[in-house]
């Protein structure tokens, strides 16, 4: 991912509609893993529509700063299949 907020946003802009896995810091040494589709990007945040069978709510949003500080780690499904 990019090294500035603008680079992170540009990298996510081209991946709208793709499946991804998020690993988010849940506090107190907890890691929350969520799967879904990158739905939209805005100037300060991006929206992920979650898989309904796995999660009780439909959407989550994170800021690009979360990605920059590695509070949220994003892995796109196509990247996983390329590595295998």
Automatic annotation (TrEMBL):
Membrane spanning residue stretches: none
Pfam families the record matches: VEG
GO biological process: regulation of DNA-templated transcription
Alphabetized Gene3D superfamilies for the sequence: 2.30.30.100
Source organism, top-level taxon: Bacteria
PANTHER family: PROTEIN VEG
Protein name: Protein Veg
Organism: Alkalibacillus haloalkaliphilus
């Amino acid at each position: 991912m990019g090294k500035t907020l603008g680079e992170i946003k540009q990298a996510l802009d081209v991946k709208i509609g793709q499946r991804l896995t998020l690993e988010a810091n849940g506090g107190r040494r907890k890691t929350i893993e969520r799967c879904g589709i990158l739905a939209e990007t805005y100037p300060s945040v991006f929206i992920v529509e979650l898989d309904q069978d796995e999660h009780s709510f439909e959407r989550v949003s994170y800021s690009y700063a979360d990605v920059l500080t590695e509070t949220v780690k994003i892995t796109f499904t196509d990247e996983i299949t390329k590595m295998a």
